[in-house]
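User: For my dataset I need records formatted as: sequence, then structure tokens, nothing else. Please produce one.
Assistant:
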Amino acid sequence: MNWKLIFKSLANKDMLKRVLGVLGIIVIFRFLAHVPVPLAEPTALKDIITSTIESTNFGGFLNLLSGGALASFSIVLVGMSPYITASVITQLLTKAIPKLEELHKDGESGRRKINQWTRYITLPLAILQSIAYIFILRQSVLQGATALGDMDTSQWVIAVTAMTAGAMLLMWLGEIITEKGIGNGMSLIIFAGIISQMPATFGAFFASLTQNVPPENMLNVFNWFTLPIDSATFYLALILLAVSLLVLYFLVKINEGQRIVTINYAKRVHGNSQYGGVKSILPIKLITAGVIPVIFAVAFLALPAFIGQLLVASGNEGLRGLGESLTLWFQTPSVTTFSLGVDWTQFIYPVVYFLLVVLFTYFYTSIVFNSDEIAENLQKQGGFIAGIRPGDATAKYLKSVVTRLTLFGALALGFISVLPFICEYVFAAIGVNISNLAIGGTGLLIIVSVALESLRQLNSRALMVTYDEFEG
């Protein structure tokens, strides 16, 4: 990463405007996260919700992904979830329906139509999720709060409208960020929300390390100061820190890893001029999909527990058992649910999480890397891969390369995703209770991946705006 080039590019007015525009949108998002839904008793609601989400790992996980909007009962509480779900639906339909696939291949105009349909699908999903959130909070969480206890029709309309408008506003802000060319808007908004909550998450994690330590067992560091932690836990924390650094290093390496395919261009004569006869490269990333599979997997894993909460809050005894099972199976595991060799249901979430990350890595790679289209463009431009015939043979070769790369990349990304769960399970097995490690691990994975991808795009744009200086 060429930081000198990036700072130099800020002298360009367009580049500076883009960077400041993205930062301004992130500030607006953080402001919206603290704007409560227009109901009475906002302070009382916040206190009750905060105490509730602190008592459940699932609530803390949702609060982390929403950037604290859940605790504030904010208008952006629904977040990017409807837009993510709508994006997956439209992409699946694009693969399943030939006419939509042809429209996708039409270029920018076709993609704009598909994006417009994604927005249309986002609206009803945002309305449904807004109603569901209020229903859950009203029935099972805030029974003692009069603001949600006796809501009339007008209050329901106001609350749902405000939350739906917040979700659509976030979608619009995310698309503006994407248009700026400095990172994916959806990922950056989730990134900003997680960053804002990570200090509190890691604070709770370290608090779990230091809780209930007798004064006589506290660690004295060189007779200078005393840490509220015993020596055994201190060494375990050092080991955990070393493992975290190794994982971050490994994550950066696989995120930056790529396979270079050499492209040759045949010589062509046009009039008195000769073209071609040069070589170029086609870089194929190890993880072409980036962090999107993790975001998709986290969003989809929240749905079963969310549905379970709805079924429990419905008051129907026939559905209550199913709702409790879904909530138990798909809640983010913690030391309170980990039980060595006792209950197999504690492994449902990590296993499904791993499988979804692998599945979405393959799925999203097939969306962003079209080997047939690349092979067709190379053939039109007179490009070919040495030893590979142009056309279908080139497409087949590129598809096989991407499949092999994606296999390793998907397994590596899935392993890194569930590693915090494994560490939490190992610590619980040896009698060390650590909370929020899995939550913080998922958030840290998203942070690192989004930061690397955004910096790469920022570096590319910086190189583009300063290209004339290098050329001169």
